[in-house]
Specification:
With about 325 residues, this protein is of the alpha/beta class. The protein has helices spanning about 20-25, 30-40, 50-65, 90-100, 115-130, 150-155, 220-240, 260-270, 280, 290-300; strands spanning about 5-10, 15-20, 40-45, 75-80, 105-110, 135-140, 160-170, 180-185, 195, 215, 250-255, 310-315, 320-325. It has one domain (about 1-335): 3-Layer(aba) Sandwich (Peroxisomal Thiolase, Chain A, domain 1), CATH 3.40.47.10. The protein contains 10 helices and 13 strands. The strands form 4 sheets. A 5-stranded mixed β-sheet has the order 1-7-6-4-5, sandwiched between helices. Strands 8-13-12-11 form a 4-stranded mixed β-sheet, with helices on both faces. Strands 2-3 form a two-stranded antiparallel sheet. Helix 4 links the parallel strand 4 and strand 5 (about 105-110). Helix 7 (about 220-240) runs parallel beside helix 8. The longest helix has 23 residues, at about 220-240. The protein is globular. The relative contact order is 0.20.
């Protein structure tokens, strides 16, 4: 039986940067107010006409290059996104064509900010079942296109970007790979983070107000959910693996809000040196935030071959997910 491991990562961002000082000129806010509530100092914004696949394709290409694997070797692409190019066809199928991974299976996965963890679980299951040997999992978002730019609470949070990871089969005798997952959802909180229109229940064509196509968030409720579930999911996962937080080398959580991450880290006893946080530079990019952070951590020397990772996501649905995995790039590309 094969096990699955992460062997490559990559990220891609739009060119346009929107700083807190830019937002000060557009609305009643301040750099201090935004930093205190989110931890973000700037975010990247996709230009008009740029879709999730436009950001996802370069991120996937970089992940493949970092692993030294050609697109033709990819068996499956899972695109985790809540801002797909279209309802159908899938953004993943568009990515497969653009990458030259013709013949690869492809589907989109919608679990909002938990999407990347859900996608890794899908990849792991298929690899370990022998259905696929190489799976690209990409989080790609253009959230600013569904963000009301007059809503101060939302527009200071959400941003655009893409990140990807390549998951491949490996021999268990020489590889640790993914040790376990903890996934869940609570649909009773569905209205706490939602885009009301655009689906079958309320099509945009029949929506009475343009604003119903934007993200709507009940901030305090989502904050309470996120701080609780990040701790609980981590504790359940580590407990099931009979591991302690001391055995983790690097913690990468969904980059939603620095206060959420700091609160959870304090409760879990995670020292600051083990946390990777890039909210200051990128804001909240939903399903793209964890793979983007992995790629940046690798480039910054914070993620090294052999490191044990704890990845935690939480978001709309309400959904959550966590996983523990040892980072084991292919030997020739481990440097």
């Amino acid at each position: 039986m094969k096990i699955s491991r992460i062997v490559g990562t990559g990220q891609h961002l739009p060119e346009k940067v929107l700083t807190n000082f830019d937002l000060e000129k557009l609305m009643d806010t301040s750099d201090e107010w935004i930093r205190q509530r989110t931890g973000s100092g700037q975010r990247y914004i996709a230009e008009k006409g740029t879709a999730s696949s436009d950001l996802g394709a370069p991120a996937c290409q970089k992940a493949l290059e970092s692993a030294g694997i050609a697109p033709e070797e990819v068996d499956l692409i899972v695109c985790c996104t809540c801002t797909p190019d279209h309802i159908f066809p899938s953004t993943a199928a568009i990515l497969a064509e653009r990458l030259g991974a013709r013949g690869a299976a492809a589907f989109d996965l919608l679990a909002a900010c938990s999407g990347f963890i859900y996608g890794l679980a899908q990849a792991t299951g298929l690899v370990e079942a022998g259905i696929a040997r190489a799976v690209l999992v990409v989080g790609a978002e253009v959230l600013t296109k569904v963000t009301d730019q007059t809503d101060r609470a939302a527009c200071v949070l959400f941003a655009d970007g893409a990140g990807g990871a390549l998951v491949t089969a490996a021999d268990p005798e020489a590889t640790t790979g993914f040790l376990g997952f903890e996934l869940g959802a609570d649909g009773s909180g569905a209205d706490q983070l939602i885009i009301p229109a655009g689906g079958g229940r309320r099509p945009l064509s029949a929506s009475p107000a343009r604003e119903e196509g934007f993200i709507r968030m009940k901030g305090p409720e989502v904050f309470r959910f996120a701080t609780r579930v990040m701790v609980e999911s981590t504790e359940r996962l580590l407990g099931s693996l009979e591991m302690s937080i001391d055995e983790i080398d690097l913690v990468v959580a969904h980059q939603a809000n620095s206060r959420i991450i700091e609160h959870a880290a304090s409760r879990l006893g995670i020292p600051e040196r083990k946390l990777f946080n890039n909210l200051e530079r990128y804001g909240n990019t939903s399903s793209a935030s964890i793979p983007m952070a992995l790629a940046e951590a690798r480039d910054a020397g914070r993620l090294r071959p052999g490191d044990m990772l704890l990845l935690v996501g939480f978001g709309g649905g309400l959904t959550w997910g966590s996983t523990v995995v040892r980072y084991e790039p292919l030997e020739a590309h481990a440097a």
